[in-house]
Amino acid sequence: MVVIETRLDPANSLDIDGYHGLALMNFVHSIKRLNILATGGATHYPYDKNKRPSALDFAVYGGLSNTCLSTYSSVDLDSDHLPVHIELAAKRLSVFAQAGLRRRILPSNLNISKFQAYLNQRVLLNTEINSGEDIEDAIDVFNSMANSVFL
Question: What backbone phi and psi angles, to 5 degrees, belong to 84?
Answer without folding.
Answer: -105, 130
